[in-house]
Design brief:
Order of helices and strands: HHHEEHEEHH
Number of strands: 4
Strand order of the largest sheet: 1-2
Distance between the termini: 28 Å
Strand content: 5-15%
Structural class: alpha+beta
Number of helices: 6
Largest sheet: 2 strands, antiparallel
Shape: elongated
């Protein structure tokens, strides 16, 4: 009995060999993460600069702007169900009981909090509306193009092995 292998089956077999030669994809995954991080880092730095530029009346404790800026991070998940890259502003539990500082400072309508001397009174404050959203929205198209380029490079790397 003779078994004939079509061109598509050959390509698939060669692709499987190329993936195995990538040592479970560790080197390729590491390079993809490095390239994705390089794409998002300038936007992360711009978001950090935007929140640091917020005016301040001064406070004796930790600098709120600096803590919020330090919580802006690039998160990359190269595999799994929700694979992708994201720029996130994490919560700030350690700053003056202001856990949602990044979210509240970014809000267009501002935020309210209890007055220091009179907890029953509420004070309305404005942060720097759009410091995160506007900064990231401006670079969204550039990020999508760059991520597509990273994926194309990974695809070419795999197909060149076969």
């Amino acid at each position: 009995m003779v078994v004939h292998i079509s061109a598509e089956e050959r390509k698939l077999r060669d692709l499987a060999r190329a993936l195995r030669s990538e040592e479970d994809g560790k080197a390729m995954r590491r390079d993809m993460v490095r390239e994705m991080r390089a794409v998002l880092n300038p936007t992360r730095n711009a978001a950090r600069a935007a929140i640091r530029a917020m005016p301040s009346n001064g406070h004796a404790g930790l600098k709120l702007r600096s803590v919020v800026a330090s919580k802006v991070m690039v998160q990359i998940k190269p595999s799994g169900r929700f694979a992708g890259a994201a720029l996130r502003a994490k919560k700030t539990p350690s700053v003056r009981k202001f856990r949602n500082a990044p979210k509240r400072l970014n809000a267009r309508k501002g935020f309210t909090h209890p007055a220091i001397n009179n907890p029953s009174a509420r004070i309305h404050q404005m942060g720097r509306p759009g410091w995160f959203d506007d900064t990231t929205r401006r670079d969204r198209a550039k990020h999508k193009r760059a991520m597509a380029g990273v994926l194309r490079a990974a695809e070419q790397r795999i197909t060149s092995k076969s």
